[in-house]
Design a protein that fits this description.
Length: 500
């Protein structure tokens, strides 16, 4: 290799790093702005110690973001796909780090590991917590906790895409890196306009839920906090008992909006203008069928095991089913106390998730449906070796490259689940913690699927405080990996991503 080639490669890598630093700096700065509403909440409730901590955290985050954007990064003409993947991956780790500052500065969660875990769980909309009683936090910190999920729900990258034209950087590559579907679905020719419309819809539905909840037993603060974490399918609450301490009315309102949040926001936008679009969507029909099927099985199981035909049994079964299918993680009942068959079924639901283009985690309905159709086509191909079989989802044929990509995604997803379970069990065996296999496996499944509760020591009425420190870092990594649909994070460890 000549000296000129080595120099060109070094310059190429340096340019990519500076391009990444430019956009990541803007994203970090934007996350600093998101702290200000939480600071305002502390001021309203005259919680001045938390107010000072939140303002300081916002100032530090915005200053560091501005420094990287202005002095370290370099503005390029247009992002390539691999730069988009790098920016998305680095951004989520960065905002989780800076988002932990309010907890650390206020002293509410002084330990870095716990603060990072709580923040990563927020931005990834996982809802796993190290807090036994979040109600002990001040109103401002509770609002920040909810805001991390609301911002992370639709995606802080998509929020930044809406303003990236002002920075002179295109956003399609960022959207492709974060999009849960095969390609970003546009509502307008320009993706920045699509992002703005989706955010307006996201905000409008959130406001609608706030109005509905205020007619129940929640006060305005509780209505806002729970609406932010419902529409993001996050699951952070303001009480130690999640939704169980609120009225039947509030629980049914949350059920309805969890189901909405698990739907594609692009489809919601089109469906509100043309309702027939919901019936035309094969993925929406499959999503509703899975939700109804889960409700029937869970409610039927509860009735058969002694629950009886009661409104509470139906409501708890419905709430739990929708909460797990949409990966929200709210709870009204401790499903860790149910019979083992229902527990196994709940764990199976953790791998599904909502629709592509929703705020839900998991594998997603589109991928599940496509995998099932592709497997059926493979079986038919064994019987008819010379036959030509096309994988279809609904009436549309799914291209072979998309099928292969989905199969690769599922392979990586299951590999991460098995590897994560092994590593967490290994970490546990070399620490003072005493976690069983059910705890470790469901903790990993919950983190990877962005769900929140698991079983045993991380069940619906427990928390993650007992997980060893190294284990919390592992779960934080899995939360971010699952939120970003696996590939953007794994690509960060691929040398080709950083080569010119």
């Amino acid at each position: 290799m000549t000296g000129r080639s080595r120099t060109g490669r070094r310059r190429g890598r340096t340019f990519i790093l500076r391009q990444v630093a430019y956009v990541v700096g803007a994203v970090v700065g934007a996350s600093g702005l998101a702290v200000l509403p939480a600071a305002a909440t502390s001021a309203i409730y005259q919680e001045w110690a938390d107010f000072r901590a939140l303002v300081l955290a916002a100032a530090v985050t915005m200053a560091v973001g501005a420094f990287f954007w202005r002095y370290v990064g370099r503005r390029g003409s247009e992002l390539t796909s691999r730069e988009g993947f790098a920016i998305v991956g680095v951004s989520w780790f960065a905002i989780s780090a800076f988002g932990s500052l309010p907890y650390i500065f206020s002293g509410a969660i002084p330990d870095l590991t716990n603060a990072y875990f709580e923040t990563a769980s927020g931005f990834t909309t996982t809802g796993a917590s190290i807090l036994a009683d979040p109600g002990q936090l001040g109103h401002g910190l509770l609002m920040w906790r909810s805001l991390t999920q609301w911002v992370g729900g639709m995606g802080i990258i998509v929020l930044s895409v809406a303003i990236l034209p002002l920075l002179g950087v295109g956003g399609v590559q960022l959207a492709r890196a974060e999009s849960p579907g095969p390609t970003p679905d546009r509502l307008t020719p320009r993706f920045s306009q699509t992002a703005k419309r989706l955010w307006l819809l996201y905000a409008a539905i959130t406001f609608t839920q706030i109005v509905f909840l205020t007619f129940g037993d929640m006060n305005l603060f509780q209505s806002i906090a729970h609406s932010l974490t419902t529409m993001s399918t996050g699951g952070f609450g303001t009480e130690a008992t999640s939704l169980n301490s609120f009225s039947v009315y509030s629980q049914w309102v949350v059920i309805l909006f969890m189901l909405v949040a698990g739907s594609s926001f692009t489809l919601l936008y089109r469906g509100f203008r043309r309702p027939k679009a919901f019936l035309e969507s094969a993925e929406f029909r499959t999503y509703i069928a899975i939700a109804i099927g889960a409700i029937i099985i869970v409610v039927g199981g509860l009735i058969a095991t002694g629950g009886g035909w009661s409104e509470e049994t139906i409501r708890d079964g419905t709430f739990t089913s929708i909460s797990i299918v949409t990966t929200t993680g709210f709870g009204t009942a401790d499903f860790a106390l149910w019979v083992s068959g229902l527990q196994v079924f709940i764990v199976g639901l953790m791998f599904l998730g909502g629709m592509a283009g929703s705020t839900a985690g998991g594998v997603k309905t589109f991928r599940i449906g496509t995998l099932a159709k592709a497997a059926h086509a493979d079986l038919r191909r064994l019987i008819h070796p010379r036959g030509v079989f096309v994988t279809r989802f609904g009436k549309k044929a799914v291209p072979d490259d998309i099928v292969e990509s989905i199969q690769s995604f599922f392979l990586f997803y299951m590999f991460l689940f098995m590897t994560g379970t092994f590593l967490l069990a290994f970490i546990d065996s070399n620490s003072s913690a005493d976690l069983d296999l059910v705890t470790t496996a469901t903790a990993v499944a919950s983190a990877l699927g962005n769900i929140g509760p698991g079983l045993a020591d991380v069940g619906p009425t427990s928390n993650y405080a007992g997980i060893p420190g190294v284990g919390k870092w592992l779960l934080s990594f899995l939360m971010i990996t699952g939120r970003l649909e696996v590939f953007p994070v794994l690509l960060l460890f691929t040398p080709d991503l950083w080569r010119k």
